[in-house]
Every structure is written in C-alpha cells, then in structure tokens.
Amino acid sequence: MSPTRRSRQVAAVLATALATALSACSSGDGGTAPAGGATGTQDAVDAALKAGGELTYWSWTPSAKAQVAAFQQEFPNVKVNYVNAGTGNDHYTKLQNAIKAGSGAPDVAQVEYQALPQFAMTGALVDLGQYGFQAFEDDYTPSTWNSVKVGGGLYGLPQDSGPMALFYNKQLFDQHGITVPKTWAEYVAAAEKLHAADPTKYITSDTGDAGFATSMIWQAGGKPFTTDGRNVRIDLQDAGVRKWTATWNQLVEKKLVSSIPGWSDAWYKALGDGTIATLVTGAWMPGVLESSVEDGAGKWAVAPMPTYDGGTPITAENGGGGQSVLKQSANPALAAGFVRWLNNGNGVKPFLESGGFPATKADLASPAFTDEASDYFGGQQINRTLTAAAGQVVPGWSYLPYQLYANSVFGDTVGKSYAEGKSLDTGLADWQKALADYGNQQGFTVTTG
Amino acid sequence: MATTTRSPLKPRKSPVLTAVMALYLLYTLVPLAWLLISATKTQSDLLSTSGLAFGGSFALLDNIAQTFTHDNGIFLRWLGNTLLYVVVGAGGATALATAAGYGLAKYRFRGRRAVFAVLLGAIAIPGTALAVPTFLMFSNLGLTNTPWAIIIPSLVSPFGLYLVWTYATEAVPDELLEAARIDGAGELRIFFTVTLRLLLPGVVTVALFAVVSTWNNYFLPLIMLSEPDWYPLTVGLNQWSAQASGVGAQPIYHLVITGSVITIVPLVVAFLLLQRFWQSGLTAGSVKQ
Q: Which residues are the signal sequence here (chain A) (predicted)?
C-alpha cells in the first residue's frame, strides 16, 4: 500500500526487533534460504477448509471486514477472528515482535510488497508453493506476482496493485492553459508555468517519501537493490536513479514542489482547493479522492504517467500488497485456504466493491471494470488508463530485504536534501551509506556501486 | 532609616519580560484554541476553513455523538480501558512509591545505597528503550495482549519513589516517629495514621505524575496490544488518525480531534482538583521555620 505516517519510535523498535530476527537467522546453518519453488497440490487446502477451524487475520484494508463476513458465510465451520492491529509500520512492528517472541502472531496477515522480502527472508512466512499455489501465476499481473516471490519461494498471493498514473486537477490546468505533460521535461515546465501564474499553487507535494522515490526510480529503469541470498547490492547512483534525480532535482531545487506532508489534513485540503495540482501515484488513488476529497469532485482527471522520452508508455508500481500465511500458524493449510479465497476466489469481489484496484488479470480486463465511468472524474473512464498502466510496469524490480528500515531512515538522509532544496543525489548517497552500514550489521554482505 | 526603595515583594515590572511571557502564553494557548475550535467543525469544514476560524456550522455536539458511536462505540471502550489502566496502574504506582519511599527514607537497613543506585539508573533509562525487552518478557509469560501487560509495568514508578523518598526525609521528622513509638504505636499504625498525613502533598504530586504518564502512555500499549478492544485512548485515537493514509484511506480527522478534546478533559479536571495539594507540595521545606 502506500506511504504511511512515519513514526520514529515505531521505526526504532522495528529496527531493534528486526536486527535480532535477522541475526538469529544468519547464525543458522543457512537453512533459511527459501525452499526453491516447491509445488504440491491443493488437496490439503481443500481438506482443511472442509474440516474447518479457527483463524486469526490481521489487516487494515477497509474491505477486510466485509471479506471476513463473506468468507464465514461460505465456510460456516471456519471462524476468522479479524483484528485491525494497526496501520502500516504499527502493524509490522507488532508482527515482527510476535515473530521474534515466538507466539502471538496471526495465521494470516496483510503484507505489502515492499515489506514482504523482509518477512520472507527471516523465515516468518509459509511458502505457499507447497500447496500448489504456483499454478496461479497466470492469474496475476507479472509485476505483482514478482512481488510475492522471494528467492523462488511464493510467500503470499497479491491482493491489490498500484500501477502509477498522473492524477491532475483539470480545472486548474485549463484555467492556466497548461497541457497535460507527456514527458517529465513537460512536467517540469508545467510546474514552472503553474507556480509563476499563481505562487500559491504547486505541481505536487513531496517532502521526501521513500515509497514515491523508489517508484520513480523503478520507472526510470533504476535497479538500486539486488539481493542474492545474503548478498545485497545497493547502487543509488545507477543510471535510472540519476535519470530520476536529474528531473526531480529541478523541482526540488527551485522549490516547485509543495512541502505539505502527504496524508495530513492540510494535504487533503490542498488536494481539494487546487494548492496541489497533480499526484503521480498508484491506481488506488481514485478511491481515496472520491471518499476524502469532496471539494475535488469534477475537477480531477487521469492521464498516463509521464515518461522520459515521450515514447512507449512505461510506468511503475506504487504501493500494493497481499496476504501471507505465518509460520506460527497452527493450521497453515486452512490459512492458505483463506488466502486463496481472498485473492483468487470470491474474496476479490468485496475487495473491488470497496474501491480496491485488483492485481488479477481477469478483473483488470473485465469490461464492467474498464468501461466504468467515474462521476468524480467528470465521467472519464479512468480504469482504461489505469488498467493499461498495469501492463506497462517495468519488469525486474526488487526491494531491499530490509526495506521497512530503509524507508524509516529516508527522512533522515534524503529528507535533508528536500528540506534544504538541494540536489537529491547527496541525500541518496547518505541513504546508501546508512543502508549499507545497517545491512552489514544485520549479517548481510552489502556491496555498493 | 533604611534606604531601600523597593520591597522585594513588589518587583519592578519589566516590559520585555512581560512581552516574552505574553508570547509564551500565546504559544501555549494557540494549539489548545485550535483544538477546541476544530472540534466544533465537520470533517469537510475542517479541510476547507482556516484553522483558527469557526466553520460554517457548529458541529461539536454532533461530533461528540459521532465519536462515541463510531465503529460500534469503541471510543467508550477505550475510555474505559484508559480509566482502568490509570486507576489500577497509577493508583498502584503511587501506593508502592509511597510505601517504598518512606521506608527508604526512615529505616536503616543493608543495601540502601544499592537501592539508591538502581533507582537513579532506572530514572535515567527511558521507558521506550525498555519496551522491546519488556514485550519479550511478557510474551514469555503469556501476558501480551492482556490488560496486565499495561498495568504491571505502570506499577513501577522510579521517579515517584525518588520523589517520596526525598519528600519523606524532609517532611517526616524522626522525632515524631520516635514519639509515636514511645507511645506504643506499631510501625504500620505509624505509617497509616502519622506518616501518610504528613506525606499527603508529596503523594498527590506523585499521583499526578503517575496519572498523567499512564493516561498519556502510548508506546507500551502500542507494542503490547494487538486487539483494539484493549487499547487505551492514545493508541485508539492514533489508529483512527492512521486511517487517513494509504489505500482506501478514510480520514476521520473531526473524530480524532473531538476524541482528543474529550481525552484531555479528565486530565484538566484532575489538575484543577488537586492543584491545592500540588502547590503546597512544591513549597514544602523551602522556608526554615
């Protein structure tokens, strides 16, 4: 899912807990390497669903309640205890603590793509390959399927996806005679034109958000994080990274982006009154705009994400995640059955009804979904743009096996560049150093480029 | 004849200091004013009007009603949890600190110095640093995700103990205790009939500290509890606030703000009621009579 409110304290604890978990794992006999692509059959899962039992499910997705209710109706002999243990980092902190303590973890938990490698590599998750779930590969977009695979193991099923697009305030653009940018150069030009015409307006707001930065690097073709077992390579100066900073530095250095922090009340306000003119973000954004930015109704529109050359449309993912089965589960086959129902069965429907953006190819291609006209977006068939984006994601991206920690220190390093209006490359170099130091402390062998 | 031109009780007024204090007062009051004014706005007014101006409608009562009914009335449950943690946790902490502080101040026994060293160490370590070890310990005991995980750590108040200790040293004369002993009173009777009364201002001060810290306790319950039914107000309100970010975000800032106002009311009441004791406690021992 998307960037969430950062809490230093939470991050600190997460780091401590993770440190111990990772080092405990590294001291083993190497048996933590994910079992390569085990494929079994789904018979055990079917039998477990038939036999019934009790499950605990941690999630903060708005659709979770409805999904659990629908699941229990379909399988009356399975009882699911739904717990909203926290959002984002709070959720992961608790999960990590429970894993470390050896008890108290749920059977099934929501895990975002950016957090999945961390939990998978510490051996906390069940490889769903043993139940034959590898067979579902063709049901999902390649980028989301790639995100739930770590080292050949399958550690969850994708629920939502966030292919990126450009959300813009059409009314404001029209008012100032700005055309929708197709390239990043045009985007920067639009930022200058808008701010010159009305100094209270900004092209977007960005105070330094790791989720956004990694997505932008992803689109630019950067591959700053590569992991091979316990070897990690970090290169935050590769061609893709520099391609992105060459564009974004112009906005940061000329103070053309607003410094309103994302997801704050001021941010919602700014999205409604035009202070923030565009958002380059995941396809899940329309639901947020519709439910929480009433003043923006009829003003906003969607266009493909700008590219560097204006040619073939390419994009990246921002946010999104799925559900995983925890090793602590007393009944992993039943838990796997719940995950299968959630993301490869009847659970997808309540998810779509709550405004979620799917990861399943069939739902993305269904005419009912793509042809839907959105009143909020002035009747635009926004899903045409968004589902097209789902097929244009640059392949081969991977997050760090300690991405949550990385995100938590982004503000301390790259955040400084944002605050001072200076080149992001300096901040990214600091980030790289912090990540290399931390990785080495955790028992990884980190090389930097 | 004395040549003093000014009585020390009538200090000269300094315009600079007055201005600084006025600024400081403003600085202190503006957030509170913002909170109170914001609590009267609807969610959409909150996002469309200026922070320190009233919105189009006066929605305070409606907001309060919504706060108590949102999500099946879980706010009331959180309020109840907080009260439970404060009454049992802070109450217990005060009782333990009082008894132990008095004991350390007035009895001579082996290891007193060691206790003093441990105590100073305990005051120096921030609670946050102990949170994860505490979590692991409670997890081994099978107490996480239960109210005990919040209450038991709250019972320990090194700073309160230290405060009572120093206060008892000053406020309880040894002669009085000896007189009571000569009159034949047992140690427990002395503690309950003589000492407690003398210690009252100190005890109230400690109680206030304990109540405020338990009431505002955030980090410990955050990591200990995963079941929203056991959350105190602080963690619960943060969960409401966190709903504003991410996929399917549903900001309910108006309820978070109204909930915050409701949350500070009992603390304000506690301070007003106990102010008398608090003040006499702060000045104790300042003048030698």
A: 1-26
Closest residue in chain A to residue B132, using alpha carbons only: A13
Supply the ipTM of this predicted assembly: 0.83
Provide the CATH number for the domain around residue A436: 3.40.190.10
Q: How far apart are CA A354 and CA A63, in angstroms?
A: 6
Residues 6+ apart with CB under 8 A from A376: A286, A289, A290, A296, A297, A298, A300
Q: Which domain holds residue B73?
A: 31-46+55-283
Contact between chains at B223 and A93 (C-beta distance less than 8 A): yes
CA distances from B132 to A100, A374, B127, B152, B154 (A): 10, 47, 10, 15, 15
CB contact under 8 Å between A62 and B253, yes or no, is: no
Closest CA to A42 of A154, A155, A131, A126: A131
Q: How far apart are CA A192 and CA A255, in angstroms?
A: 10
Domain count of chain B? 1
**Distance of residue B124 Cα from the nearest chain A Cα, in angstroms:** 18
Q: Is residue A347 part of a domain?
A: yes
Rounded CA gap, A132 and A247, in Å?
44
Q: Which of B131, B228, B250 sits opposite A62 (nearest CB)?
A: B250
From A228's Cα to the closest Cα of chain B, the distance in A is 30
User: Number of helices and strands (H, E) in chain A?
Assistant: 19, 13
Tokens at A382, concatenated? 């926004």
Contact A62 B223 (CB under 8 A): no
Which residues from B are below 8 Å from A98, CB to CB? 139, 226
pLDDT in tens, chain A (449 residues): 444 434 445 555 555 555 554 544 443 333 344 444 567 899 999 999 999 999 999 999 989 999 999 999 999 999 999 999 999 989 999 999 999 999 999 999 999 999 999 999 999 999 999 999 999 999 999 999 999 999 889 999 999 999 999 999 999 999 999 999 999 999 999 999 999 999 999 999 999 999 999 999 999 999 999 999 899 999 999 999 999 999 999 999 999 999 999 999 899 999 999 999 999 999 999 999 998 998 999 999 999 999 999 999 999 999 999 999 999 999 999 999 999 999 999 999 999 988 899 999 999 999 999 999 999 999 999 999 999 999 999 999 999 999 999 999 999 999 999 999 999 999 999 999 999 999 999 999 999 98
For position B143, which CATH number holds? 1.10.3720.10
Contact assignment for A4 to B223 by CB distance below 8 Å: no
Chain B residues inside the 8 Å CB shell of A276: none
- Is A272's CB within 8 Å of B136's CB? no
A97·B223 Cβ contact <8 A: yes
Identity of the residue in B139, B238, B248 whose CB atom sits nearest the CB atom of A103: B139
Domain that holds residue A34: 3-161+321-365
Do A84 and B245 count as a contact with CB atoms less than 8 A apart?
no
Q: Which of A2, A8, A10, A13 to mutate to test the interface with B (most CBs of B within 10 A)?
A: A13
**Residue A17 in contact with residue A100, Cβ under 8 Å?**
yes
Dist. CA B15–CA B5, nearest whole Å = 20
Please check whether residue A381 lies inside any domain of the structure.
Answer: no
pTM to 2 decimal places: 0.87
